[in-house]
Amino acid sequence: MAITDRAAGQFFAAPPMAAPVMPWRSEYGCIEDEGTTTELGGDVYVYSSPDYALDVNTLYAITPEGVVVVDTQLLPRHAEAVLADIRARTDAPIRYVSNSHHHPDHIYGNSVFLEAGTELTSSYFTARMIDGSAFWYLMFLSGLWGGHLPQAYVVPTSTFVRSRELWLGKTVVQLFEFTDSTSVAGESVDVTMAWFPHARVLHVADVVWPGSHTFFADGTSVPDWHIQLSHLRELASELKPKVLVPGHGAPGDLGIIDAQERYLQAVTAMVQEYCRGGEQPLSDEAKGKLRRDIVAEFPEHRNQIPLDISLQMLQMLGPVAFLTGRPDAVSATRLPSFL
Hints:
The chain is of the alpha/beta class. It has one domain (24-323): Ribonuclease Z/Hydroxyacylglutathione hydrolase-like (Metallo-beta-lactamase, Chain A). 33% of the residues lie in helices and 19% in strands. The chain contains eight helices and twelve strands. The strands form two sheets. The chain has a seven-stranded mixed sheet. It has a five-stranded mixed sheet with strand order 8-9-10-11-12, with no helix packed on it. Helix 3 (124-145) links the parallel strand 6 (119-123) and strand 7 (158-160). Helix 4 runs antiparallel to helix 5 (255-275). The protein starts with 35 loop residues before the first strand and ends in a 16-residue tail after the last helix.
């Protein structure tokens, strides 16, 4: 229907980012790229999507009484790949899916699991954040992934405050809010971590991105992120996990916390230099040089889409993420109630 032919009583939403938001690069990969699965032991697995879909990790644990899943991917095709991966290993029901935070790359596959009869759970704060942002993310991201994105989004209705235990027979998975509106927040203002005590595996969401470029825009606070990393060290000293599973990048030991800190320190220094502490806008030429400097400093890092989205927003909005932290600059470590 042409604009002049619209019927009375109708309105049309025109997404402001329906066109490409930045040039596409060959290193991003393509839609045909496949993900990989890593076994962590104790019937716990991590499915990682390709860089084209932001190298998102979906963690799942298999028990005789059912399966529990953490995060559902950006694109439905990769949520379906996770479902197929699980079904290749077990026909046990998928009992629970937990969303670690509200960002679209961790929740847009929810509908795939809902259709499979799964209970979707998250913190109440995350559910409200999903409901308040997922539509707008669809508009923005349509300029990157277009029709590969879902047509709608699903908000968890089984919510909790502070913590929840998911029991599957004798196996428990303990969910707890590591970040909410009262605490320091790095990459996201809401973070629910998941502890798998039988396997000593801790899912830490997007607090660390080992070997991967990170988002440093869209609500991120780098000063708070540094504090949050110190909190994660304290948590790890209490739980003593064998493996930390990030929201993106390869699972690892406590060294991935140090690596994230080094990355943020280096990128902060470069951004501050190019933006003169926030006083100078980032020109196209400066943005290109800044990108080259970051890639040269971390030549083995994957996942360059977050880097380029962040640089695009840095140019539009300035280095807000690097300048703005919690006013009192302090926050107690959020330890789970089961400790």
